[in-house]
């Protein structure tokens, strides 16, 4: 088991403190970044460790840009033996699926010593982040913030006087290799509680929501929020921000930081003790928060009907004589060495299983009990979606291997936002539950949780040609197989950089072709 | 600094205990091995750690074969983010330079999830080993023994009754990533001392030598020896084998194991305390051992003259504002992402520096003092050797960065054996020292040390088309730049597997060519 020394979750949170955004960049600018990824010594919690840094920094540099900008990241891999990719979490990569930064899916990993150019457009404002998407390199420290401001001349539907970005993440003392071998799962969640200060949630995953006030945030790995706070408290004091673990009984103390009023020294301690975060398994509290998130008026509306529904049962299983895995409809995802984008584009027959993965699970499966047959199998098949079709996904949670255990999983979709149509307890029943779907103002997100023993219904339009991961954002869970792969309209994808294809069977195809032409 | 918990050096040592080799395999057999490389938990010294294992074993499986056999290793990389290669240390790879297993030199690293086939002939008997040759994966645990028996019908020029193979290696508690970042050098050496028992050295690096008796072996990283011992001691006792560190003041106790007489329980402790190994800096002892190694009569003789002499000054330096490096003629080797074998074969212009690296060092350089100007630069140029020419290499040691410090370095040549023509103290002086070269019975080796402040003269024939590393075998020293690259007759190299070329600029060349043909 990995030892957790800090209970942060990877995500961004926006506080507003001072008036008016100070930047006045032009929309449509091309912004160049030159990054080197390498291991560096760092002591995030006073214990020196090796982390994966960018340009000598951990976390990596913050990208600040404006909606409509194109960013070009010239990424050089200065690791010695490891490949690397970076995923731009929340960016839909419209027209640039090869830049999604998912090893085995959108591109070949960048080899040590090599440079890859990520080039993509920031199509809308929001609080995003980026992170490694290969093995467990995110846990190794490869991440940073990506803040996209509204385009010049446009206005956000709320006002604030300044901002503060908070990027929080898990931190372990054991190396990710150690964690990978142990296959230990560490689902962490946090709640931030700026004391006394009310939080007004205005944005979730880069989409505006109907503002609502809360005392704390219930946030899961892969999510992001913007919240407004009003600095209406006694200005002679500073205030605690508490961060607690949720969903799993914490073995670590709360994380703490200070909300510093400008009038005070940043080191002045608050007069009262830090607020205690809600207990880790207060799911009613979590659900109450989650169901408050609704789209702001004027937001894109979901199609009223769907073309295809895929139900994905999340189970914890055993494989090959005892290894613990996670499986979806009893298939534990094992990514192939040849990225799907290339192997599908070029019609390769042996790059992955051409058998369609299951659309549902047996009706008699009891989600409230441990699996009767805990065994699962590895698979790497793809859900092929008709281009521009409307797809409903029902994520169904279940009991894990132990009795009376069902974990929370935050599912993240690449290449799209989805509407969250509803949450429910127990097994999803179409005739009963579909009627309760919110088709009026469901929030657009790229990440949504399933609560213990519950289901979550999502809808999206498969309108972005490419191959896209959809997976639990808890990195060890993905590592243990908790994900699926969607492909849509790959024949429409053009201009994949050769470098993104120069590995595995696509690489072999090219070298063989070239050799044949040479001979 | 890495903490050393065991003071073993990677090498093999053959004890003979029982009569007659029991194997009767046919010469010329093809031997298939199917190996998976992956991280495993292991506790080599009672502290659990993650090591790089093969088929779940650490060290990896022993390859046992016969001279004339062809081995085929189907190597699958089951690491999650790291490439991998395996070097077959001491095997000359005649006609198969692409199978030498050196990342950046002979092949593209095998990507995670992919399989590569090493196929090569074992051209002569000997005690060899194999190990990772990418980053510091050897230190991570990727190694094992490779024992090649004499061909059927042939006889070894000595007799023994049984055998025992000992593969010894350094062991660290910190991960290799930690070590890589720290660039901490850990040159370790060992001396084995079977108590009372005399050792008769009969083979070094796969070549027979004139038998000589010693009380202990003075062995360096990358070397191998076969020694005969006669079990002529009191059979009611067991005996200690002591292993001590040399060349650097040890921070660890001696390693110990037992020589067990069959008549006794393997757990019976010897009656006397373990022998104390010679102190770490007794260089006179080391030199006395080394100069006893002479070729057995009938061994291949060196050419009497040479075509080209390359003098390689070994210095410790600083680079880029303070990083400690090792440099050869003031060039610190930094391997390029595109392997040389492919980039030279296909005449690529931008894969590495086309400037020839220096053949010598300034005459005024004082090897007895720290460098006056400690700065060095990175380089990746190649020494291009005329095919079938005779090359002399003089390895010149020098004072390191600190006053009165000069370390021992064991230099290993790929693709060839070399004759060790002589050792000397101080700066090599051609007119004075060349006369003392041993051209009569110099030993053939693939690894030779330079002693502190000394020089070592080697001769080899560049008769093996390919690109070959020549480097200090202490892995962190190589990692810090202590090596050079030789290329010879690359135009004669054929049948490089496409997979060995499918990365970097050769990969790009192929994908571009194929794309042009497709369009």
Per-chain topology:
Two copies of one chain form a homodimer.
Chain A: E1 4-15, E2 30-42, E3 49-54, E4 63-66, E5 70-77, E6 86-89, E7 115-121, E8 126-132, E9 143-149, E10 164-172, H1 176-182, E11 189-194, E12 199-204, E13 207-214, E14 219-220, E15 225-229, E16 239-245, E17 255-259, H2 283-290, E18 308-319, E19 323-328, E20 331-333, H3 340-345, E21 377-379, E22 383-385, E23 390-396, E24 409-413, E25 418-425, H4 430-433, E26 444-445, E27 447-450, E28 454-461, E29 466-472, H5 475-479, E30 483-488, H6 504-518
Structure in a nutshell:
By secondary structure, chain A is mainly beta. Chain A has helices spanning 176-182, 283-290, 340-345, 430-433, 475-479, 504-518, and strands at 4-15, 30-42, 49-54, 63-66, 70-77, 86-89, 115-121, 126-132, 143-149, 164-172, 189-194, 199-204, 207-214, 219-220, 225-229, 239-245, 255-259, 308-319, 323-328, 331-333, 377-379, 383-385, 390-396, 409-413, 418-425, 444-445, 447-450, 454-461, 466-472, 483-488. A 6-stranded mixed sheet of chain A has the order 19-18-23-28-25-26, with no helix packed on it. In chain A, strands 10-1-15-12-13 form a 5-stranded mixed sheet, with no helix packed on it.
Biggest chain contact: A-B, 48 and 48 residues
Give the DSSP E fraction of chain A (strand runs of 2 or more residues): 35-45%
Oligomer: homodimer
Kindly report how far apart the N and C termini of chain A lie: 54 Å
Number of strands of chain A: 30
Mean pLDDT of chain A, to the nearest integer, reads 83
Radius of gyration of chain A: 22 Å
User: Which structural class do you get from the secondary structure elements of chain A?
Assistant: mainly beta
Order of neighbouring strands in the sheet with most strands of chain A: 19-18-23-28-25-26
Separate helix tally of chain A: 6
How would a textbook summarize the main sheet of chain A?
6 strands, mixed
Task: Indicate the low-confidence ranges of chain A by residue numbers.
Answer: 1-25, 183-195
Helix content estimate of chain A? under 10%
Shape of chain A: globular
């Amino acid at each position: 088991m990995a030892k957790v020394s800090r209970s942060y979750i990877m995500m961004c949170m926006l506080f507003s403190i001072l008036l008016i955004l100070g930047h006045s960049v032009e929309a449509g600018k091309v912004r160049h970044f030159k990054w080197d990824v390498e291991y560096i010594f760092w002591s995030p919690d006073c214990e020196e460790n090796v982390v994966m840094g960018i340009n000598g920094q951990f976390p990596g540099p913050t990208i600040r840009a404006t909606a409509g900008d194109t960013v070009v990241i010239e990424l050089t891999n200065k690791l010695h033996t490891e490949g690397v990719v970076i995923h731009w979490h929340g960016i839909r990569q419209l027209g640039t699926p090869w830049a999604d930064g998912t090893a085995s899916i959108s591109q070949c990993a960048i080899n040590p010593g090599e440079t890859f150019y990520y080039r993509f457009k920031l199509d809308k404002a929001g609080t995003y982040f980026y992170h490694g998407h290969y093995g467990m390199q995110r846990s190794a420290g490869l991440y940073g913030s990506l803040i996209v401001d509204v385009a010049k001349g446009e206005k956000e539907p709320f006002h604030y006087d300044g901002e503060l970005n908070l990027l929080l993440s898990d931190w372990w003392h054991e190396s990710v290799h150690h964690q990978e071998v142990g296959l230990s799962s560490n689902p962490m969640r946090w709640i931030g509680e700026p004391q006394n200060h009310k939080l007004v949630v205005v944005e979730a995953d880069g989409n505006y929501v109907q503002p609502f006030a809360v005392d704390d945030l219930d946030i899961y790995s892969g999510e992001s929020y913007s919240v407004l706070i009003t600095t209406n408290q006694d200005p002679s004091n500073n205030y605690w921000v508490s961060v607690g673990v949720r969903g799993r009984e914490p073995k670590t103390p709360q994380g703490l930081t200070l909300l510093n009023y400008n009038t005070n020294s940043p080191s002045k301690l608050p007069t009262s003790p830090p607020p205690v975060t809600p207990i880790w398994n207060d799911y009613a509290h979590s659900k109450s928060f989650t169901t408050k998130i609704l789209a702001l008026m004027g937001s894109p509306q979901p199609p009223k009907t769907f073309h295809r529904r895929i139900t994905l049962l999340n189970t914890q299983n055993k494989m090959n004589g005892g290894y613990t895995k996670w499986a979806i409809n009893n298939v534990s995802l094992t990514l192939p060495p040849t990225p799907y984008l290339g192997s599908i584009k070029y019609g390769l027959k042996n790059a992955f299983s051409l058998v369609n993965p299951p659309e549902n699970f047996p009706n008699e499966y009891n989600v409230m009990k441990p699996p009767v047959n805990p065994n699962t199998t590895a698979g790497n098949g793809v859900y092929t979606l008709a281009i521009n079709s409307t797809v409903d996904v029902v994520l169904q949670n279940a009991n894990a291997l132990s009795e009376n255990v069902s974990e929370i999983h935050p599912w993240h979709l690449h290449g799209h936002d989805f509407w969250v149509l509803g949450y429910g307890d127990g097994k999803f029943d179409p005739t009963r539950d579909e009627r309760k779907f919110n088709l009026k103002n469901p929030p657009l997100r790229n990440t949504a949780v399933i609560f213990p023993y519950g289901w979550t219904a999502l809808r999206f339009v498969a309108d972005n040609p490419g191959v896209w991961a959809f997976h639990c954002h808890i990195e060890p869970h993905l590592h243990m197989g908790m994900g699926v792969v969607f492909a849509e309209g790959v024949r429409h994808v053009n201009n994949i950089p050769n470098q993104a294809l120069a590995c595995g069977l696509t690489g072999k195809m090219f070298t063989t072709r070239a050799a044949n032409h040479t001979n």
